[in-house]
Design goal:
The chain has 266 residues and is an alpha/beta fold. It folds into two domains: 163 residues, Rossmann fold (3-Layer(aba) Sandwich); 71 residues, no CATH class. Strands 1-11-10-4-9-8-7 form a seven-stranded mixed sheet, sandwiched between helices. Helix 2 runs parallel beside helix 4, helix 4 runs parallel beside helix 5 and helix 6 runs antiparallel to helix 8. The chain starts with a strand and ends with a helix. The protein binds adenosine-5'-triphosphate. Adenosine-5'-triphosphate binds next to strand 3 and helix 1.
Amino acid sequence: MVETSVRAKAAVEVRGLTVRFGSYTAVEGVDLEVGEGEFLALVGPTGCGKSTLLNVVAGLLPPSAGEVYALGEPVGGPNRKAGYLFQQDALLPWKTALDNIAMGLVFRGVPLREARNQARPWLERVGLARFGDRYPHQLSGGMKKRVGLAQVLITNPRLLLMDEPFSALDVQTRHLMENLLLELWQEDRKSVIFITHDLEEAIALADRVVVLSAGPASRPIGSFAIPLRRPRDVAEVRLTEEFLGIHQEIWSLLRGEVQKSYAQQG
Ligand SMILES: Nc1ncnc2c1ncn2[C@@H]1O[C@H](COP(=O)(O)OP(=O)(O)OP(=O)(O)O)[C@@H](O)[C@H]1O
């Protein structure tokens, strides 16, 4: 495997992971580490097994073989120290933005009144100070994402698992959300696994990009350190020579996998 980085202490360790669905082997023999405080992006062709891998780390899917540790403990079920953000919103339609953020804590046993008190500053931090009493159907897609992000971050997870969280947004809103995510992440540098099929998004956000091979039996085939300076503006960083060089290097590996994946789909 192509390897261009040195990792710190592991927040996630995956050893020899295989996941089968019936006779189909989605991922096979996967070894992967995510350092403490590292922002890792996972890219790969569509259907290669990115979500499968993330769901195993999240404890939502049992491995067929192999071992997975998150924050020093074997993963055996949904991990309470991890926060999840998926493409689909997890907002309750009958709750206001403020209460939806508070729900992150309520689900963990914090009384509603206390949870609301803690949720108020979060409205401001995600740029929704004037929208606390709106219901999800009264919010734009980007605003809902902000609520979703605050709902996860209010629980202060040490590990953030994100599965294409911004892919349904238009490009401008997406860049705003990516910058907001980086701004909040820089405050205390949680360990992150961020899945995307967009290589540019992966490079703009991450400390390291791992490339998965086309399925079946997908596995990591490249790991690239992203030495771009922080803080980063995700729209501006894309225009730099350095970014283009990194993109070219990773794309030269990813392109072949994308082609294989298309060929398999007939
Ligand atoms: N519950 C399941 N039962 C059967 N097959 C599954 C199941 N979940 C996933 N798969 C298959 O495993 C493979 C990997 O799926 P997965 O969703 O992990 O890929 P992905 O890389 O996240 O895809 P995408 O980029 O399209 O979101 C696919 O071929 C998919 O059809």
